[in-house]
Amino acid sequence: MTSRTKNLEATGPVTVDEMATTTERDARWQAVVARDATADGTFCFAVRTTGVYCRPSCGARRPRAENVVFFSDAAAAARAGFRACKRCKPDAAAPGAAGLVVSLCRQLENAESTPRLRDLAASAGMSPFHLQRLFKQRTGITPRAYAEAHRAARMRGRLARGESVTRALYAAGYGSSGRFYAVAQQSLGMAPAKYRAGGAGETIQFATGKCSLGAILVAATPRGVAAILLGDDARELAADLRRRFPRAVVVDGDAAFERTVAEVVAFVEARRPALDLPLDIRGTAFQRRVWQELRSIPAGDTRSYAEIARDLGVVHGARAVAQACAANALAVAIPCHRAVRSDGDLAGYRWGRARKQQLLARERG
Asked: What tens digit of pLDDT does each residue of 66-86 get?
């Protein structure tokens, strides 16, 4: 490795792509966590402890955040002294249908306004129906949803660089201020002016405690409950919260927050059939679709990752569904414990297999 790579501080995911903003680095790390195939070709990441660089979608064991370095492309990673992963082959072009979808993603990203489906289909030499089906099979969302998510990401990047809200929204491709403000709160997680200031003032209150499932952490923003984390150690849960919300100011909950915590704990302990609190759900477009599907599964029932993928229209998407479950920050409120393998095996669970088994047994009475 070069001396530059060796001397990078090991405090979290970093980048040697000088053009990347903090927002973009956070987004890249989330893409790695989700193994997001739609991010392939937009950047690659390297692991300092192994000396290997990979595609964002690489299926190898997820590295620790502090060991990750981001590069704009494979050539940059190679110049820094890293070698290509033999599993995901980040230095090779994507083959066949995967390559076509990657090309379409780049086309959508570079377009000043969202291309019409028929124009995309014409450029790919196929019918609109088949293009939409192929794109959704590979990414889990439609071309329009992908374009809108990328447009929101461009908006976030421009605001983070200090551009005015008006200039940023038009440069990002929003046709009018009304159209942008209609989706601003969901895409930014806060008011545009506050996001432009770097998220200054956005506060997450949290508290930790004990429940029948072990340690529990409850966190909330002014929009709603943002995290319900389960584990064995309250300190580890607090560290996990800060990793999940790196831009937020995380503070101990005040006296009024105790009522929110009490309601969440009562729900987790099954003393309440529903959580009558607003949720602040943050995730990629595909993750949100999976989480919504999970919330439609009745208590006590289970569905396989493959069944959920089929219902979402994602062929061979079981693994992507499982990754979305692993990224869930709202235990029980988004019931990823109801997703199992096709053979009925409970499989993994972000907060431990034993807790998954206990939750299902409790729901089934």
From this structure: 899 999 888 889 999 999 999
